[in-house]
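Fig. S4 source data, part A: sequence.
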Amino acid sequence: MTALDPAQSARPASLSALMGDGMSDEQGTSLWRGAFERLSRNPAAIIGTLIVLAFVLVAIFAPLLAPYEPAKSQWIDQVTPSDVPGPSPGHPLGLDPFGSDLLTQLIYGARQSLIIGVVSTAIGLLGGALLGGVAGAFGGRVDTFVMRLVDIMLSIPSLLLAVSVAAVMGPRPGAIMIAIAAAQVPVFARLLRGSMLAQRGQDYVLASFSLGLRRRTVVMSHVVPNSLGPVIVQATLTLATAIIEVAALSYLGLGASDPAIAEWGRMLVKAQDRLQTDPQLMLLPGLCIAVTALGFTLFGEALREALDPKSRR
């Protein structure tokens, strides 16, 4: 056997080190996979996700979780002008001023808030994406016209705009959805338009145009998908605002007129005359609104940080 040259024996080892260990440490991950990994290590994201998941499950399975039918007043004889029965074996949280089970009303109130919040946010997202996409894709006079329209909508406070739309359309769930969505449209429009303008100057867009691709193909296949990240994050944050606005409109008497529909905002209205004697009637629905909004806010902020390249750890 002949002895190996130390230089020759060291060369494969160093090459394998570069090709093996070095390249294995540089394996890339997709944007959303990396964001998911960062979210799984973020305590605020975990807490927010658990709150949102609990809220969604309660809303979906309300008929199975609620002990009674909503807005049933068969215990109205137990309610007096000066006293509302508190917790009992048949009613864990007691009754409300109209003789209905308070726990049942809270559970069904979650379903109503989820439906209105999600639908209104979806409508606002679609409307804002349409305006922002048109402005970001065409630019020039089209961009100027759309953005002036958006500026006019932004000049009106969101809650005032929602109240005005709901008052004109009448007290029904569809009116609340459209009212809240109208206040969200300019936010999504400006966000998507700004994100698209930032993407239009990227190298991959210039390369696509240099290959002869049409503007419509470049915008729909490349610019828009890469601009949706901030919009999705804003949608999660807007859900928290939508839930609060649903309760605010119901509190102002602009919610659904059907008393059989349980809603957290209406529960606050019913309980305001009994704040001194029965504070739980107002504290419990108020706590549900605050905790739900907190969950969506924590999750949305954590998702924004996970998708932001400047804040990645």
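Fig. S4 source data, part B ends here. The mean pLDDT is 78.
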